[in-house]
Amino acid sequence: MKKEPIYRRQVLDELDVRTHPDGRKRIFSIKFVTAEGKLIFFPQAYACGAGRMNNKVFRVRGIQACDCQGNPEKGIHVYPVRIYNIIQYNGHPVQ
To answer: Do residues 8 and 87 make contact, with C-beta atoms less than 8 angstroms apart?
Structure first.
């Protein structure tokens, strides 16, 4: 079943809210293209900082793969993702 597209602005609004009101991390699935051109899919991830840069000015968000409890995956680093390289968010194509 094909899902409705979601606008990039809506995705960025979702990524800016990092926790639920009770303090748990907001976990989502995401598919994006890296700066090197690799297609990456994380079935479970959360948003975090992308390093020592201004995320708003450079238009990047940090994405960390995690398990179902919100713990970071071993051996997988934080990916700085350009906002225009996000292809899919929670199964919805991004436009």
So the answer is: no
Cut 0.85: pTM above it: yes
pLDDT tens for 52-62 read: 777 777 789 99
Reduced DSSP (H G I as helix, E B as strand, rest coil) percent helix, strand, coil of the chain, to 5? 15, 40, 45
CA–CA separation, 18 and 30 (whole Å) = 15
Q: Span 18-40, mean pLDDT?
A: 93
CB 15 within 8 A of CB 29: no
Per the structure, the count of domains in the chain is 1
Distance CA(75)–CA(17), nearest Å, equals 25
Residue 2 lies in a domain: no
